[in-house]
Amino acid sequence: MISSFFGKTKPINHIIILSFLFVFYWIFNSMFTNDRPVAEDLAINILVLSVLLLSVFVVDFIIKRNKMTASNSFAILFYALLIVVFPETLADNNAILCSFFLLLATRRLISIRTLRNIKLKIFDATLWVMASSLFYEWAILYLALIFAAIYIYEPKNIRNWMVPFAGLFTFFMIIQGFLILAHYPEFIREHFNFTIAFDQTDYLDWGISSKLMAYLVITFMTIIFSFLKLGKSGLGKIVTMRLIVLSFIIGIFLKIVASSPNDHPLMVTFFPSAIFLTNYVESIKKPRIKEIVLISLVLLPLLGFIIRIFVK
Question: What is the DSSP letter of 268?
């Protein structure tokens, strides 16, 4: 039933997933956050929730436009389920906003494969990455993804290598102009201090650490499986998937260096993971087995969250 329903790209699939995330966001924030939203906080929450829901459309657009999976809704389903597995990311507005801008950057980078307007796409991706770094300064590491894309697609044109630096200069000039008008010119110096906020609490907690380890193991297993499957595919798709893997690795590093009781940047890895989970599910040929796998992937996160509510 799940495989046949989400195996198609119907508007009802998006409505169900968006409605679920809408309800889940308010349930989690009302039950697991200490602060009750006043008028100002409510406005911020509505803005952040809108960005979260828009992220689902961006994920779906990137995947369909670049044919990274078959024509189905599994990827956005898994993206929503990963939020259920790690619901604490919903309490971190910075994680949601940072992830959104990184999705926009990834969209531009993947489109470089058409070899049209390369410099403009590199410039746009640089601006989006820098925008994401306003929420997590370590997100600036995703500039490495831009240079990797240049190396993969058109490394011989020296001007391509200079475009990210032009993007950096443009970004800082625009931001500094706004900061001067806002009478807060020291923001850049204070924000981009690149301190390592490694919090051992999550890693010493057996429940949290085991969940994170299971997530990493499953994702890397699906990555390996996807590349074995892609061996028979065209080189273009393999190259794109290499960028997605690099994005996932950078996201894990971001999680390690920027984790704290109030910071949960793991959401930046949900997009790559959803792609590889989708590729794995698509490879299952027997309908009954596929249905069992999908039911398990849907029920286990929901069951885990329900248990969390009762033990709260």
Answer: G
